[in-house]
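Dear colleague,

Following up on yesterday's call, I've attached the two folding results inline so they're easy to grep. Please treat them as preliminary; we haven't cross-checked anything against experimental data yet. The first protein's sequence and structure tokens come first.
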Amino acid sequence: MFEQLFAESHLQGFKTGKQMIHSLKYFYTASSGVSNFPEFVVVGMVDELQFIHYDSNSQKAELKQSWMDRLTRDNPQYLEGNTGNFLNAQQDFKANIEKLKRRFNQTGGVHMVQYMYGCEWDDEDDTTDGYNQHGYDGEDFIVLDLKNLRWIAPTPQAFITKLKWDQDRARLEYNKNYYNKECVDWLKKYLDYGKSTLQRTERPEVSLLQRRPSSPVVCHATGFYPDRVVVFWRRDGEELYEHVDHGEVLPNPDGTFQVSVDLDLASVPREDWRRYECVVQVKGIEDILTPLDPARVRTNWGKTGPGGDGGRNTCLTTST
């Protein structure tokens, strides 16, 4: 459920080299019957970067970014206020698990309630969006349709809740104002406090890699920030969709990111490679174009010794 939402929001986060959709998200997780894991956890993320954390073991909100220190100096009640809110939510979610177990006719076992809410802001056209989604045991339970101000119940057990919440017009209007205004104001505030981190641009290094002559050629981009990047192969100026395998964006130890996109050239003659190129798009910089030139491909194979390419033969690592 939430994994899909992560993937969709990540793809929506990048439109062009100049346009960015920023996001503020909170994830609440309550569980019962899970050993060695807090019964309640809250994670707050801005542009996919965690900035605050709370769990039922520590029972206090903790900052996860150094730039948040300045915000708390300007807002001395910030941590105390969030701690109080999370403590109240912890009690509510503990009770909600028991209610849901009864509604699903369950007794013991491992069970989990998840809640994700937040907003997005497009820094180009100033449009906004919001989301409020509840899940139980890994499945959607009830979801807010913000555009039509109604709740959607994907499962029969949630229909009673839907009817009750749909009748609460005051709550729906509050949600409309919160996700379109208040949440966005907080998002912009976090972006301002963390702009040296959140709004910086790091140019990626791009390499073409191939493990064996029969292996796909990998376009590997690393060292970029933010993590919203588009990498694709094209032939004769047209983007390729077949014989292409897109990898996930992964973090580097220094806080930057890396990603790889494979291109299977098994049926392509070497003399036709010049028709292909890898394109990397990152916000704030011009597109990086890397032609598929055999001389530029770093490999783990080939001759060694006199006349060989022993230096290039050791270029590939497990990170690619």
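Below is the second protein, in the same order (sequence, then structure):
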Amino acid sequence: MVSKFKPKQFKHVLAAVDDSPQGQSALSFAIHQAKEDHAKLTILSVLEEDELPVTTRLDANEMSLLQDRIDKALMDYQQIAKNFGLKNDRVEKMFAQGDNAGETVVKDVLPHTDIDLVVVGAHSRTGWSSHLGSQASYIAKTAPVSVTIIRDKKISEDEEKIGFLNRQ
């Protein structure tokens, strides 16, 4: 019986991240898993429109600046993955918008991809999308694929003191 056991190997890992310390931990784990499994890595950030002030949502310039900031972070995250040995053609970035990050991942992203593992950080209190981690439970309960929720106790304790890339 033991000889038939074969560990799960993922083909396409989704790192659902924001700029919080817990998002950094999720990205780190997803990079490791993708490298270990020789899998493709997609790094996703979701802009939760419902969490934005109405004045920001109605101001095209403000929305554009926010999207540019997130895109810049995604490019940085892509480079981090490449620096840790993932090949250029195996790392991509993805940006999505929606009222709820968890629903956006499950209903808008997963059905249109071949992703077989979602990695998300536990709830964060900082970052541009501080609610992505609070959606981790929803993603774990409803996603049709494996989900790993990353909790970093040390980061949780220090979260108030540190930022991911100290973006302004």
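For the second protein, one point worth flagging: The longest strand covers residues 40-48.

Best wishes,
A.L.
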